[in-house]
Specification:
Radius of gyration: 23 Å
Shape: globular
Structural class: alpha+beta
Strand content: 15-25%
Distance between the termini: 52 Å
Largest sheet: 10 strands, mixed
Number of strands: 18
Length: about 500
């Protein structure tokens, strides 16, 4: 239950930094301009899903001093009911509203103002160590404190599927899933009264015009909603797989802001799909035999207004700093994939043959390498590296923070990534392939790698030991063991008649 106790005994919390009156006045202006009736407070659980609760607008407006009331007191909630947070005997937590995140909620019919919140401990009066947004803030600050760069910029390419039907269940004596899409090539012979064809063939969904692409208008509706919330969108299109695989790319932004945008992106996609009687999933590999959905993540570092990843004399126009950053990513990839590809399903995508980047190498242009250096232009401002193993099942705050910390470690320790591999890595000879490391083959192996290799994440107190331990425990007990203990439907095909 969400409660705000206004009694004199309540401990008042202070914002971690100044709450500027102008930001609060902007919120009050939005309330008046859009005739807001509901305030919706959103925050992130540890695995990566938005949680929320709502209150009438009077809680923000009908008070004597809007600057010193809810903005300094916060709003209480039960932390023991949130995944990865508190135990029952220490459940009280506080949400502190971030006025800079206030936007008109893009999917609610009743005029609703959406605000993202930070999580505080009511006893210590400090930010909560397991708040993913706080971890991302600390990573961004550590970059500057280390005197490496002023800020980092992030551009994730989030992919997802839009299906027309989904059913799944797991009981003691049964287990199944069923997905369907009017675009699915498996429906080319179905009597749809009439069946009009135009089903994208397997691996041929990238990217014919309508009518093959039946989702053009829906994606356009989605990006217009995104734009109204302040998300800058660059492009949308159908992706490679049959059955409604899509991609919408956002314009790059700073670390915390981009993670905020990722959560709003998923919120809009899911709700707009539901409005059209469809269902969206960011599950990395929902279909057998076709491409999965990734989140190729572009990143660069800037200092004094200059992109320090750019060097006109460097390989693919990247600097030595960028190469060290790549070295850190490749060295720590097995560990950070516990955050960047954090589900058992992620490793059904990270297999050869489906454009998945399973090889820990770097290259310009080459999409078979874990790190790709785009060469579309020679503009210094656009020079960046792209880390391709992540997928959108991740918590973006933790994924971006872990990638940044790996890159910083590479720069500080001058980790050499070796020579680039400018060839199709999938077609290497057996002798050549022996010298190329690969991503972990399962979530269990990634979690084991994180357990052994996480000291670099603890630098600057960005990740704390309790976060690492909680993540490892949660993934092992709630996901790895839970999936491993259950019979798989295909096992009946293989073994039932033995």
């Amino acid at each position: 239950m969400c409660i705000r106790d206004r009694s004199k005994k309540e401990v008042l919390l202070r914002w971690n930094g100044d709450v500027h009156n102008k930001d609060i006045q902007r919120v009050l202006h939005l309330i008046k301009e859009h005739r807001i009736e509901i305030i919706d407070l959103k925050f992130n659980d540890l695995p990566g899903m938005w949680q929320h609760f709502s209150m009438p607008v009077s809680e923000l407006t009908e008070i004597d001093d809007p600057v010193k009331s809810i903005w300094s007191e916060g709003v209480g909630f039960d932390g023991s009911s949130i995944r990865g947070f508190q135990k029952i005997q220490e459940s009280d937590m506080i949400l502190m509203l971030d006025p800079e995140t206030a936007v008109l909620d893009p999917v609610c019919e009743i005029p609703t103002l959406s605000l993202i919140c930070d999580i505080y401990d009511p006893l210590t009066k400090k930010p909560y160590t397991r708040d993913p947004r706080y971890i991302a803030k600390k990573a961004a600050a550590y970059l500057s404190q280390a005197n490496i760069a002023d800020e980092s910029f992030w551009g994730p390419e989030m992919e997802f599927f839009l299906f027309n039907d989904v059913r799944f269940d797991q009981t003691e004596n049964s287990g199944f899933y069923f997905l369907d899409s009017v675009e699915g090539e498996w429906n080319s012979g179905k009597d749809e009264k009439p069946n009009l064809g135009y089903k994208p063939r397997y691996k041929e969904g990238y990217f014919p015009v309508p009518p093959h692409d039946s989702l053009q208008d829906l994606r356009s509706e989605i990006i217009l909603k995104m734009i109204r919330t302040g998300i800058a969108v660059e492009v949308h299109h159908h992706e490679v797989a049959t059955a409604g695989q899509c991609e919408i790319d956002m314009k790059f932004n700073t670390l915390v802001k981009m993670a905020d945008n990722c959560l709003m992106y998923k919120y809009i996609v899911k709700n707009m799909a539901k409005k059209h009687h469809m269902v969206a999933t960011f599950m990395p590999k929902p279909l057998f035999g076709d491409n999965g959905s990734g989140m190729h993540t572009h990143q660069s570092l800037w200092k004094g207004g200059r992109n320090i990843f750019y060097d006109p004399r460097g390989y693919a126009l990247i600097s030595q700093t960028a190469k060290y950053y790549i070295g850190g990513l490749l060295k720590h990839a097995p560990a950070i994939l516990a955050f960047c590809a954090p589900t058992t399903n992620s490793y059904k995508r990270l297999v050869p043959g489906y454009e998945a980047p399973v090889n820990l190498a770097y290259s310009q242009r080459n999409r078979s390498a874990a790190v790709r250096i785009p060469v579309y232009t020679e503009n210094p401002k656009t020079k960046r590296i792209e880390f391709r193993p992540p997928d959108s099942s991740c918590n973006p705050y933790l994924a971006f923070a872990s990638m940044l910390m790996a890159g910083i470690d590479g720069i500080r320790n001058r980790i050499d990534p070796g020579e680039p591999l400018d060839k199709n890595i999938y077609e290497l000879s057996a002798q050549e392939a022996k010298n190329v490391s690969t991503v972990p083959g399962s979530l269990e192996k990634a979690i084991n790698a994180l357990e052994k290799d996480h000291k670099f994440l603890l630098e600057g107190d960005v990740f704390t030991q309790d976060v690492i331990e909680t993540w490892i425990e949660y993934k092992r007990e709630k996901e790895i063991d839970a999936v491993g203990l259950r019979p798989h439907p295909y096992e009946f095909h293989l073994y039932f008649d033995i």
